[in-house]
């Protein structure tokens, strides 16, 4: 299945899940002075953007060094996305990774990594870059739009949380999780089918 620019953008937004991460983001910034929060948001989003861009442009070289195939990456990416989607649909109560950092201003961890540039986002940009490397500018554009959306959502996270309420945000996160589940299954089946064809042709 060919990935379009729009579908890649939507996929990346679903994976980074800015709306669903609003409660965790607010918790991570709870002890940061209000006048510092905008700078922290911009800094952390920029760091996450740079990290994902590095994975996008240098991911193929990394896979070659590790002797990993496109099929294995697609299957692994599908599994990771499926696990992330299940957690979005059935969220756990604990958030110890974020609650343990309340006494200081967050730097890189936990907002930039793993809240924004988590394993699933890294695996997805790797997958995009290895499947269709000729469209790197498109993937870079999709990632740029995704990070712009994430930055705007985080900048207005307090207002959105008050406006929508926790129940609406939770419902939206579950809806995104449902869509992401279907995407992960499609990715997983595509990787398995490609592997079977590869083995068949080799035999």
Description:
It is a single chain. The chain is an all-alpha fold and 203 residues long. The chain has one domain: Up-down Bundle (Growth Hormone, Chain: A). 79% of the residues lie in helices and 0% in strands. It has nine helices and no strands. The protein has helices at 5-16, 22-28, 34-66, 70-89, 96-99, 111-116, 119-131, 136-155, 157-202. The two termini are 25 Å apart. It is a multi-pass membrane protein.
What is the first-to-last residue Cα distance?
Answer: 25 Å
Percent of residues in helices comes to over 70%
Number of helices: 9
- What is CATH's topology name? Growth Hormone, Chain: A
User: Which blocks of ≥5 consecutive residues have pLDDT under 50?
Assistant: 94-103
SS-derived structural category:
mainly alpha
* β-strand amount: under 5%
How many discrete domains?
1
Quick one: biggest sheet? none
Q: How many strand units? A: 0
Order of helices and strands: HHHHHHHHH
CATH architecture assignment name:
Up-down Bundle
User: Which shape, going by the Cα principal axes?
Assistant: globular
CATH class: Mainly Alpha
Subcellular location: Cell membrane
Family: Belongs to the UPF0056 (MarC) family.
Membrane topology: Multi-pass membrane protein
Transmembrane segments: 6-29, 41-60, 72-90, 111-130, 136-156, 177-196
């Amino acid at each position: 299945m060919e990935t379009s620019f729009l579908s890649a953008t939507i996929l990346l937004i679903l994976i980074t899940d800015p709306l669903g991460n609003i409660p965790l983001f607010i918790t991570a910034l709870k002890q940061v002075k209000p006048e510092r929060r905008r700078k922290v948001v911009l800094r952390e989003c920029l760091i996450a953007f740079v990290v994902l861009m590095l994975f996008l442009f240098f991911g193929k070289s990394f896979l070659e060094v590790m002797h990993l195939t496109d099929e294995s990456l697609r299957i692994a990416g599908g599994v990771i996305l499926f696990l992330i989607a299940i957690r979005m649909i059935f969220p756990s109560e604990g958030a110890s990774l974020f609650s343990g950092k309340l006494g200081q201003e967050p730097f890189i961890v936990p907002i930039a990594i793993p809240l924004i540039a988590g394993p699933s986002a890294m695996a997805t940009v790797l997958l995009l870059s290895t499947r269709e490397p000729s469209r790197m500018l498109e993937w870079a554009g999709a990632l740029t739009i995704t990070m712009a959306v994430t930055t705007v959502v985080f900048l207005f996270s307090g207002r959105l949380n008050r406006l929508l309420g926790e129940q609406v945000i939770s419902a939206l996160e579950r809806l995104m999780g449902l869509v992401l589940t279907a995407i992960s299954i499609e990715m997983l089946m595509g990787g398995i089918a490609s592997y079977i064809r590869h083995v068949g042709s080799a035999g």
